[in-house]
C-alpha cells in the first residue's frame, strides 16, 4: 500500500512503512512526530535536536552542532580530530 499515490505519507521528512494489511506513516531518522494542527494528518515530522538530547556521538572534547535531520561534531580549540574522536593538539 506504499505505492506512489496510494498513501498520505507525503509531508517533508516522512515515509510510508507497509504494515499488513495497510501502511503507517513515520518520520525519517533524525526527525520526530509533533502535533501540528496545520497539517492534514494532525502531525508532522520536526527536526530532532540530538545535541540537546545528548543523542550524539561527539567526543567529550567536541562541540555538537544540530543540523536539519542530523548533527555535526567539531573538536574544541586545542584539540584535533574528526569531532567523534578528539585528541590534544
Automatic annotation (TrEMBL):
Organism: Ancylostoma caninum
Classification via PANTHER family: EGF-LIKE CALCIUM-BINDING DOMAIN-CONTAINING PROTEIN (PTHR24042:SF5), NEL HOMOLOG (PTHR24042)
Keywords linked to the UniProt accession: Disulfide bond, EGF-like domain, Glycoprotein, Repeat, Signal
Residues in EGF-like domain copies: 47-87
Name used for this protein in its record: Calcium binding EGF domain protein
UniProt keyword annotation of Repeat present: yes
Lineage: Eukaryota, Metazoa, Ecdysozoa, Nematoda, Chromadorea
Top-rank taxon: Eukaryota
GO cellular component: extracellular space
Pfam family, one: EGF_CA
Amino acid at each position: 500500500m506504499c505505492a506512489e499515490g496510494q498513501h498520505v505519507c507525503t509531508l517533508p521528512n516522512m515515509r510510508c512503512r507497509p504494515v499488513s494489511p495497510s501502511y503507517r506513516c513515520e518520520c525519517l531518522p533524525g526527525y520526530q512526530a509533533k502535533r501540528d494542527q496545520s497539517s492534514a494528518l494532525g502531525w508532522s515530522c520536526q527536526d530532532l535536536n540530538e545535541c540537546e538530547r545528548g543523542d550524539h556521538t561527539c567526543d567529550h572534547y567536541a562541540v555538537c552542532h544540530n543540523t536539519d535531520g542530523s548533527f555535526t561534531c567539531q573538536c574544541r580549540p586545542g584539540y584535533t580530530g574528526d569531532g567523534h574522536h578528539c585528541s590534544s593538539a
